[in-house]
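Task card 7
Instruction: Convert sequence to structure tokens.
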Amino acid sequence: MTALYIILGIIAFIIILLSVKFSVTVHYEDDVAVSVKWLFLKFNILPKHDKEEKPKKEKKKKEEKPKEESEVIPEPKKKKQDNMFVRFYRNRGVEGVVGLLKDAANAVGGMFRRIGRAFLFEELIISLTVGAGDSAETAIKYGKTCSAAFPAMGLIVSNMRVKKYNIEINPDFIYGKNVAKLHTSVSVRPIKLINAVIIVAFELLFKVVLKLLKHSKAPKADVEKQINTK
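Output:
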């Protein structure tokens, strides 16, 4: 019983750890800064300050001795056997293949939807300053930027989980400068990603793999021919 309690305790501890949020923060102004945080651990991915690498000395290649030519005896060609996909097509036809592909596409699509809903935008802040050569060009550029940026933000907010968001676009009629700023923080619970993968694995197993194995068996006549030819 003690061993069982220890195993259950370890499983519970792993589930708790996987339930803790894993967050990625991206900030762009003059440079890109990316940091990752999980529990009390935080890692700065970008910018990296790598040490200057010293030039490596080229190693002298050893002279390879000429290999003695040996006669190669060609292996007898084996007869190609139909794979399971070909047999499935022969047994079930086009409709069976289309149904199999639909089941696979539905399972994979469901996985991506679950993964997409697992991510949460804690913050999504965008600030753009648009400028051009003169006031007329700046106004045209500003209108095109607004017509592209606001629908894109609406698409993200309507299809993803977003907690806090804001987009600000300003024209620069004086200096004509273009400035872009971005700050976003995305979090996810690893256990939700694992659940999505497990669900799609079971769906593919029962709806695709087992169906493929069941209907890809060679007909009895073909099996008897293979036995007689041996």
